[in-house]
Amino acid sequence: MNCKDKLSPFEYGVMFERGTEPPFSSPLNEEKREGIFVCKCCKTPLFESRAKFDSGTGWPSFYEPVSPEVIEEEIDTSHGMIRTEIHCARCKAHLGHVFEDGPPPTGLRYCVNGVSLEFLPK
Fold first, then answer.
1. What pLDDT does residue 4 have?
2. Residue 88 appears among annotated catalytic residues
3. Domain residues of the chain, as ranges?
4. What is the CATH number of domain 4-121?
């Protein structure tokens, strides 16, 4: 799926060149309305607002995706760390990383670049 013409150069850099946005820079970090967060490129539903929580990290965080099939994972060894990268299963856009320090019920923290998401209020 070619999204280059739909995205700003910065968005494209984050989503398809494995970049990241500065912490606390996304307005979606403060989004508290009921709705769904979709992939900015292909519009696949990724996270429901009920799964969003304030992790204090500066990026929108969720404890689970809408279903396991919408997110793919791979090991990321960049920056001298070992992390689990997450990307959209449909268009392969880089979303962020998942960590095992989230709240119940999953104990996971999907730490997502806000520029990779679009919020659709209910």
1. 79
2. no
3. 4-121
4. 2.170.150.20
